[in-house]
Amino acid sequence: MVRIGVVGMGNIGKVSSFILKREGYDVTIIDVNEELLKGLSLDLGVSYRKVNVLNKEELSSLSDIGLIVTALPGSIAYSAIGAIAASGHNVVDVSFFPESPEPIGRVALDKGVSVVLDAGLAPGLSNMLVSYGKELLDGITGARIYVGGISNRPDPPLGIVSTWNTLDLIDEYRRPARVINSGKVVVYDPLSSEVGKIYVKGIGELEYFPTDGLRSLLSSYPGLDFLVEYTLRWPGHVEFMKGLKRIGMLDHKEFLSSYADEFLAKLIEEHSRGMKDLVVLVVEVFNGDRGIRFTGIVNPKNDFSAMSWSTGGFLAFATMEFAKGKIGKKGLVFPEMFEKEAISDIMEMMDKYGMPIASEPI
């Protein structure tokens, strides 16, 4: 069985390591923080190595590891993935980075390896479900993705829990949202465009606004009638954030830049202290007047937040499919490219680990 190295021991890396070890894989955890590694290796029952994957010499010490999983901050992920692929390793990655992945793809093809990107919740599972819906409907003309990490009960005006990088969360409200409308890519301001409401079974009414999470789907399905990702929040949240935008708290103006982000991050972190989160994912896929809706609701599990559990879970399941040889394309691979057998296996694992995906015609 291939030895798997998991790089980055944040919550998502921990979840993936936990699941991979539980499924019988030979796992080595990798980070630059040796004290962290020592404790986690005992907790998880895995080996560890202190390695800086941005250092070519240190990276060479991983030559016995056949597959590397990366769960790194977006600020270093692009450089790290490129370096790992250049060293001849296959990679399954969950990190968000703004750079174009094409140079990494060229390196991977040159080295004859695969780099699976965006193997998380959204992008990730959402991409796979769009592809799965296309297969079930024998085609696709449009899709909508609704996804959110929210508090497990309404708690206006925020209603969110700080379970991942808070500054990245704040950027969702700033970053222009790219969507497809009538076969063309259109750019929206998240808080100055479409805001709506959706009823989710078992949760109730949530509101949504467009965000920039389509990533590779924009090029995988360029000619659709519509393709959009929305972020979900409890009612009242969007109007609150619009108020912050109106007074300049979401701008990068010089007179605010020194403290606005820090203030908002602390506001969210303090407001959500002691609260539990909930992940909601709804993917609607259409082929003309026929459609299918996928719904997933995830609660915290095993002391992990719902966001970490769902994101790290999909990362682990995609890694397992690669290790079993069911994701074999060289170069860049995205979740919408997964084969039918891999999708079926992942859906079964989602159910096994308390993340079931329900489907219904619409």
Please explain how this structure is put together.
- By secondary structure, the protein is α/β, with parallel strands linked by helices.
- It has two domains: 3-120 and 309-361, NAD(P)-binding Rossmann-like Domain (Rossmann fold, 3-Layer(aba) Sandwich); 125-304, Dihydrodipicolinate Reductase, domain 2 (2-Layer Sandwich).
- The protein has helices at 11-22, 34-44, 56-59, 74-86, 102-111, 125-137, 166-171, 217-220, 237-246, 254-257, 260-271, 306-323, 340-352, and strands spanning 3-7, 26-31, 47-50, 67-70, 90-93, 114-116, 142-151, 177-181, 184-188, 196-200, 204-210, 226-233, 277-287, 290-298, 331-333, 357-361.
- Strands 7, 8, 9, 10, 11, 12, 13, 14 and 16 form a nine-stranded mixed beta sheet that branches. Strands 3-2-1-4-5-6-15 form a seven-stranded parallel beta sheet, with helices on both faces.
Task: For this entry, give a set of tags.
362 residues; Rossmann fold; Dihydrodipicolinate Reductase, domain 2; 9-stranded mixed sheet; 7-stranded parallel sheet; 36% helix; globular
Task: For the record, give the distance between the C-alpha atoms at the N and C termini, rounded to a whole number.
Answer: 42 Å
Share of residues in helices: 25-40%
Low-confidence stretches: none
Work out the strand percent.
Answer: 25-35%
CATH domain class of the largest domain: Alpha Beta
- CATH fold description of the largest domain: Dihydrodipicolinate Reductase, domain 2
Number of helices: 13
CATH architecture of the largest domain: 2-Layer Sandwich
Biggest pleated sheet = 9 strands, mixed
Order of helices and strands: EHEHEHEHEHEHEHEEEEHEHHHEEHEHE
Number of domains: 2
Structural class: alpha/beta
Please name the fourth-level CATH homologous superfamily of the largest domain. Answer: Dihydrodipicolinate Reductase, domain 2
Overall geometry:
globular
* Total number of strands: 16
Overall mean pLDDT = 94
Rounded to an integer in angstroms, the radius of gyration calculated over CA atoms is 20 Å
